[in-house]
Amino acid sequence: MREPNAIDFWRGLALVTIFINHIPGNTFERYTYSQYGISDAAELFVFLAGWSIGIATRGRDGRPEPRLKTVLRLLSRTIEVYRAQITIMTLALAIIAGTALVLDNPLLLEWHNAGGFFADPIQTVVGFALLTHQLGFFNILPLYVVLIGIAPVFVLVARASRVAALGLSFGLYVASLVFEWNLPSWPGEGDWFFDPLCWQLLLVLGFVGEDLTRRSLRLRAWLRRLVPLGIAIVATGVILAVYDIRPDPVLAPEPRLFFTFDKTYLTPARLIHFLGVLLAFQTLYAVLAPRLGPVTGYLASLGRNSLAVFSIGSLLSLVGQLIRFRTGGGVFVDVSVVGSGLIALGFTAWFVEWRSRKPRPSLPQA
Amino acid sequence: MALPQAAAFLAASLTLAVSGAAALAEPPAAPSGPSGPATVVSPPKTISSGPEALDVSLSPECRVPGSKLYSLARLGAVKLALKEKRAVRVLTIGGSSAGLGAATTYPVKLETALERSLPDVDVVVESRGMQGEIASGAAERLRNLVAEVEPDLVIWQVGTHDALARVDADVFATALAETVQWIKGHEIDVVLVNPVYTASLAADEYYNSLVRKVQDVAAREGVPLVQRYEAMRYLSGLGQKGEGHLLGSQFRLNELGLRCMAEHVTRAITLSLLQTEPGAPAPVIVPPRDAAVKAASPPPSIFVRPGD
Asked: CB 3.0-4.6 Å disulfide test: which of A238, B55, B159, B289 passes with B66?
């Protein structure tokens, strides 16, 4: 178990933010940083995933591990994430259907895109396995599966040339914005909620960023001088978010996606805002960590076990939504739901680490 | 025979007579010369049968009095598309329209029903599921969808997600009104569809207030409303006696509601197209093509009644 560090800490914060924001309407929602900017926790989560790939595919001495090992490592992670997505989707659908039955309330079947599954299970179960049928709030892991699935290409290209990897990634991003490329939803119409062809840029930026900042002291010093720029961008974001100032997508000139604020396509405004957030808060961890006491350890433990914590968090926020709906919400319910959820997330992280520490029982003799 | 059934049967037999009369009354010189066929929509075929007037142009199991089913308003953008003789682009948004790919599902049914009601008009239905609440991110997402699809008409099933999140009813109404104004501001028509009726929520004050808010916004902004809630409440009164003890007894009603939604929405749209500005010529009215066929058989109840 590694000591708390900035990456795990921020990833833990992103996980807590996602958990709270996925219980829409709750009292604490307005206190998450997603309400005060153009980008939100999703950007942070994907960027840090790229950063972690940079760390994971290199030895302690900074030398890259053998190529085949990297490819297999990423493949294994892809399978793990896919398995997690299938598991939580199954449980989510069962929770929705079960609650609808018990409360005799078919309204619940229309829960954020779940209706398709219940109305047309034959096609939808295929889309479910292909990840082309996604429930609302359960659409981050499909993005992850694709991103980690294609990550070996970028990682290996970056070993030859970081510029080439960035160029490839940026080119794909720009082309996807211009031509509105996205993966299709199926069955039904429309596209993925998170467009992997655009969001891959953040993963690659995280991965290359880790590599560059580790190598170059000068780059780090230079980035530090940009803190004021970051703060200016963040301040602009706060103003735009609080006053709800956004471009009208119908009036935007072509190529439209260059000018709109669209989460699906990680449009430039979101990207710039997120880079501003990075610049502004790059040194904050060193300031916060000693002052937050056990909170630092708590958030870092969530970040270390992000897949398990994210998966449990997704299900808990669904349960939280249903509890709020059933009880009518209110501050007391929100405190109980969010409070017990945060404890459960902490327990999940602890439990995963306990399980991996525990010596495995020897296999029974056949 | 139960009273509603008897009433519906009476209504059905009357339709035969009325549609025959309407066919005779049809003007022989309908403006369908070189300028092409005119907009053809059918009138509200309601027959007084007792206190409630059923709209018998609907499929038997979907028949609901018009007063419970819709409120009408002008649809300028769709009319313009009809006048310019181009395809009418429709964007449907809402929970159950997502992920339905089978041939019998809502978007497909809607397209078929609209094309049947508006002969010689090509209707293109794009359907999108949407996550999130109007009061927070969904309004923004809807704007992006509208920019992407560029429809003439948005059919919006609204309120379910906000109800599930228990969004404050006034906050919801404000956000909804703003979004409706925005859509209309871009010369795109909107038809609102309010959330479902289900017995376990019948006494839920909050839920009812949210349903009413959709109604208020539709009235205030002058857009047609399909009262899915009222229609399903009406249908639920027709026949589910003795089923209360079954697990999920409300689910059959819900299924019926889904099945009828395309027809109900189409009805509200075609009738809204009849709403004219003062002085403008009214579109030609013909009886629904299949009214006679439908009326030939008495409307069966889809609900199985124990001991019936």
From this structure: B55
Q: Is the pLDDT reported for residue B281 higher than 80?
A: no
The stretch B172-201 carries a mean pLDDT of 93
Vertex A54: Cα angle to A49 and A55 (nearest 5): 95
CA distance B100 to chain A (A): 5
Question: What value does the mean pLDDT take over residues A112-125?
Answer: 86
* Structure confidence at residue B45 (pLDDT): 53
Quick check: B144 and A249 CB within 8 A? Answer: yes
| Nearest chain B CA: its distance from A135 CA (Å) | 8
Tell me the CA distances in angstroms from A221 to A210, A213, A216, A282, B215, one per residue in order. 15, 10, 9, 11, 59
| Alpha helix positions (H), A40-135 | 41-56, 67-102, 115-119, 121-130
B200 touches chain A (CB under 8 A): yes
B202 touches chain A (CB under 8 A): no
Separation of first and last alpha carbons in chain A: 33
| CA atoms of A64 and A312, how far apart (whole Å) | 33
Alpha helices in B86-194 (DSSP H): 106-117, 138-149, 160-164, 169-185
pLDDT in tens, A177-186: 999 999 999 8
Please name which of B148, B146, B89, B151 lies closest in space to residue B121, comparing C-alpha atoms: B89
Distance from CA of A12 to the nearest CA of B (A): 23
Q: How confident is the model at residue B17 (pLDDT cuts 50, 70, 90)?
A: very low
Asked if B129's CB is within 8 angstroms of A116's CB, the reply is yes
For residue B193, give the H/E element and its range.
strand B189-193
Task: Please judge whether B186 and A250 are an interchain contact, meaning their C-beta atoms are less than 8 angstroms apart.
Answer: yes
Q: Is B48 helix (H, G, I), strand (E, B) or coil?
A: strand
Bridge partners, B48 (sequence order): B53
Q: How far is B224 from chain A (nearest CA, A)?
A: 23
The DSSP letter of residue A107 is G
- Closest CA–CA distance from residue B169 to any residue of chain A (Å): 12
Residue A346 contacts by C-beta under 8 Å, 6 or more apart in sequence?
A: A298, A301, A302
Which of B 151-190 lie inside 8 A of A, CB atoms?
160-161, 163-167, 182, 186
| Maximal C-alpha separation, chain B | 62
Domains of chain B, each with CATH number or no CATH: 3-10+40-241+249-296 (3.40.50.1110)
Amino acid code (one letter) for B49: S
Taking an 8 Å cut-off on Cβ atoms, the answer to whether B206 and A103 are in contact is: no
Identify the CA nearest to B164 among candidates A111, A102, A313: A111
**A212-215 long-range contacts, CB within 8 A, separation 24+:** A212/A162, A214/A54, A214/A62, A215/A62
Strand partners, A114: none
The reply to whether residue A187 touches residue B163, judged by beta carbons under 8 angstroms, is no
Q: Quick check: B129 and A188 CB within 8 A?
A: yes
Average pLDDT value for chain B: 74
Instruction: Please name which of B282, B265, B289 lies closest in space to residue B39, comparing C-alpha atoms.
Output: B282
Mutation site for B-interface testing, chosen from A26, A113, A324, A334 by largest number of B Cβ within 10 Å: A113
- Confidence (pLDDT) at A295: 96
